[in-house]
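Lab notebook, bench 4. Still working through the backlog of constructs that have no structural model yet. Next entry is a single chain of 199 residues. Request: give me the structure tokens for it.
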Amino acid sequence: MGYDPKVYSDGNYRWTLTQKGKDETRLCWLMLNPSTADEKKSDHTVSRCLNFAAQWGFDGFTIVNLYPYRSQDYGQCRDWVSGKFEPDDKVSAALAKNLDIVADAVTQADTVVAAWGNHAWDWGWAKTTIRRCDDRAGKEVSFSCLRTNLTGMPSHPGLYRGNLIPVGNAPGLWDRTFLFRKQTSHDVGRISEAPSAFY
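Model written out:
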């Protein structure tokens, strides 16, 4: 599958990256935050997504993220959320917009691959994002994953060789319920402390 994207971006934010094809809305990847891929060049993560999608029989997909801030370093994304790089009101507005974009992409897809990995520092925000998707769909959304990490989080595609095919030649279901079983030490983010602002 050749790289043929359409990108919805705005400055430091990338809202969606869509690999064009008849399946572009049928397969959705939900990851942590965008890196360097744009209209002209792919990056390591998107290249892995291209490879997996082709192996699963999809000719296109859409990538969305828990956070829209572009960075190769998740620590910088965390700093952005904390207001280090932009005012809090701008950060909150970007997160609110991203929630709606993620919910739209997730609810249109037949297969949603959760793939934000272990660097998701605020599990509360992951819960908020999942709840918004549920609300938009009017039901509990099923998420697939490549594999589940020891933390319980869905693994990131960048960790795998390009020729790895998951068991059964398709992504397996991710057990999302562990996120909602109890409050954890990871529910510490500024946004997850006031999730009502996003409902």
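Notes after review: Strands lie at 5-10, 13-19, 27-31, 61-65, 111-114, 144-145, 172-173. Helices lie at 44-56, 74-81, 88-108, 123-137, 178-181. Flag for follow-up if needed.
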